[in-house]
Amino acid sequence: MGPFDYDRYLVDQLIRPIANLYRVTPLAAGDTPAGPPIAYVRQKKLAIKEHIRFCADENETQELFHIQAQTWLDTGGSRYEVVDAHDGKIGLLHHVFGKSLLRTTWNVLNASDEQVAVAQERSQAMAILRRGIDFVPDIGGLIPIPYNFDLLIGGQVVGRMDRKFQLRDRYV
How much of the chain exceeds pLDDT 70, in percent? Predict the structure, then answer.
């Protein structure tokens, strides 16, 4: 089985001072790794224009692909290009502003800008609760609220992302 042939992956945050660094590891049953990490993801903290790199190794010598914001200012409907290691467009992630007011929603488009899937926050009630708690000064960000997504094709759930509660970010 190849590294990208698994149904489940663990994405866990590594502690780094200047950027968020995540490790992507395929999972077997439960939380048991099915092998070594297959990718590392670097996201600069406080970047003016988002640029997220996916690399094959922790030293980031071999880029697999990257995600880059099309603009530096989020005007409501952010768009992020997904680009391969040779600057060829793979697809586009479009944050749907109106729908995201109540439940974070992203359209996933292919290289021809045709929608192939939708990523949507699973629970509208939890999304609204999370937004309300985020407004509480000093403690809002410390209260853990699930931030889970479903990946939908034709309205049917074909995948999901679940946040695990720990000090560092951890997703399956």
Answer: 92
